[in-house]
Specification:
11 helices, elongated, 78% helix, mainly alpha
Amino acid sequence: MNIGLLLTIFGVQLPIMIGLPILLGWWIRRRYGIGWSVFALGALTFVLSQVVHLPLNAALGLLGGGRGVALWPLVPMALVAGLSAGICEEGARLLVLLFLARHVRGWRAGLQYGAGHGGIEAIIFGLLAAVNTVALLASGSASGLAQSLPPEALEQLNAAQAAFWSTSPWLPIVGGLERIFAIILQIAMAVLVVRAVTHRQPILFLAAIALHTLIDFWAVVGMSKFGIFPTEALLAVMALGGAWIIWRLREEPPAPSPVSEDEMRDVISTEQLQPLSLSAEELARRAEQSRYE
């Protein structure tokens, strides 16, 4: 049993993938006053995008393999895969903003909207990783049940367990860091699309699609050609670029407009500011009347 692997999975990877998105949503709510409903809309956007994205990839042959675009050379295949993700996710983000989330406007709301989108993606991957880990641990301890499996299924289970226990303890840490990079980039793309809607600048929406395409393109090419560490290193650089986009597009809340002297004069007249001269009888009458108010 690889104890170091289990420690990094349950001590680093899963807390980052499941706990960090919730903590981020809570911080944005407390810091900027953008509630959980906007976070939920971002999460819904990711789910809706996959309703189109996954069938599209299956139709293209990118899921299942052995046909279609999956048989193309690496670079054009990776480009199609990245473009598929970019169009589906950023398109879903735009449609939700236009029709379901018309109140989600401005830089601060964009932060929470992107946190929900990237956050639910991280949470789903984290839950899948947790289920797979627990299932492999359970199957390893239930030797009697494992021996009752058909030979082909038992061979697959043994291969999966061998691959799992031989995994480097560092890989779950890298997986957790990758989710941090992804959340930063999702927030950057969300801010771009929100700005495209509020300022009516379609070029920013196209920039979000291009950025998403580039990220997924590199993930496919990098993992195929260079391995996990160079791939994640460049994704970290992209995440820094995403952080710059977030900072560059930040907007301060509008300051209240000053009231001019003319407007103030309309509210309170000069005569109302003058002291009143009251007689002794009037003062006594008002004092007596105030006893019952």
